[in-house]
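User: I'm new to structure prediction. If I give you an amino acid sequence, what do you actually give back? Let's try with this one:
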Amino acid sequence: MMNENINGKIAEIVAWDDKYNTGIELIDNQHKQLIELTNELYTACRATESVLNAVFKEAMSRMVGYVRYHFEAEIKLQMAIKYPDYQNHKKKHDILIKDILDSVKSHNEGKKFVPNNFVRLLRDWILSHIAVEDKNYALYAREQIKKGALTEEALKDIEKSVS
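Assistant: Good question. You get back a string of structure tokens that encode the predicted 3D arrangement of the chain. For your 163 residues, that looks like this:
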């Protein structure tokens, strides 16, 4: 699972696997991007101290922005399908965002921060969230698609509204 060769390449702490597919292209593409950003953070963690500070900070900023973008898309989708566990799912997103922002703040304030541990925590959260929480609402969404309650046009509108 881990690619230790970083000679000009992004080292991987996690690789996409089709078992993470939700069956909703919009969400799957965003999940793949989250994994790519996690790998970029991991690569930054393995660099020299001077590179770590510059690259990690920039990669972390992009991760924060993308997590917010992705969570907005998921929440809009869940609202569109009237997902019954919407509040619980949103609460889990809010907790992760708070944890990420707290970590960024600690890093910026020079407090003890272990980027490698943070990236591993992020990886574990993303994969477990996709495998359990996102699969649950994706199943519900696919049922709504079958019933005609959610259309491809509606999914495209959600994607446009968060772009």
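You can read the tokens as a compact description of the fold. Here is one thing that stands out. The chain has one domain: 18-75+82-162.
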